[in-house]
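Q&A log
Question type: sequence-to-structure
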Amino acid sequence: MNIETTRKIKLLKMWEILKSETDEEHPISTNELIARLKEEGIEVDRKILYTDIEILNQHGFEVLKDRQRSNKYFVEDRSFNQPEIRILMDAVQASAFITEKKTEELLNKISVLAGSKRGNLLKSNITKFSTVKGVNEAIYYSIDTIVQGIKKKKKISFIYSEHNVKRERVYKLDKENPDKIREYIVNPVTTAIDNGQYYLTCYDDKHDGQLANYRIDRMDKVKVLDEDISPNPNIDIAKYKRQQFNMYGGDVKRVEFEIEKSIIDVVFDRFGNSVKMYETGNEKIKCVVEVQQSPTFISWCCAFDKKLKVLSPPSTIEKIKEHLRTTLEMYE
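Response status: OK
Response body:
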């Protein structure tokens, strides 16, 4: 190996050590850096080390010197700062579709973005969420295949499962041929995370382009087909996401309801800027929102006792009454 190649490798290793093992709170001394390079099989003289650090700085690889402690160096610049990395780690921890095994792998990878010292500190301070983690390790391949289908504008196929009482995954059967597992063929539109789960939003050719959602962790044998997607110019995915309620479908209704001021934040957190609020003059707030009239929305409306009352439309009010009657009958 010639001298020039050896020098380049030395600079590369030096930068790698500084970037991964140091920060402003954990600088490395000249002696420590020489020792670390020696562990990598690279001998370096103290005077040459100073020159090498200057060369790194001259070429845009910023190595800072600790002014409080002489001859200690560190790399400050990171792609992500500490709060950003913590957000990513907490999001992984709280996501139900990510398995326990994959959660640990992702936390290790994300922690590296902070450097080894801070990364280890961040990992040690993580609080385990009470999230029930998924078990389908194949979900990551399914997501990749779905993304390819969306990118190539091709239909995809998959089979879909539910759990039985024994906690076993049981695949949905074909309605016309009950002895055969049903193969879904859909036009993929987008993916979305809701309540810690990962969903595919899509439509098939049998239901007039009506959008539907499927849990990706319940999908298997996902394949990109050769057939192009069927155009659907009526899709407004941004509007669809605003109208969704916990990813359950239903007829879109303009729902008006009255709330007490104590749950304004709850309503705003649920609907965001899509909800319109008006003072009614009786210490109550009138809210208007366009939402899919799904079973989960009906249950949500009943969750606040007398603090929330639906005013219209009549169809939503009737569904709420029916829900309450059915629930009451269960306990009589």
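Response note: The chain has eleven helices and 13 strands.
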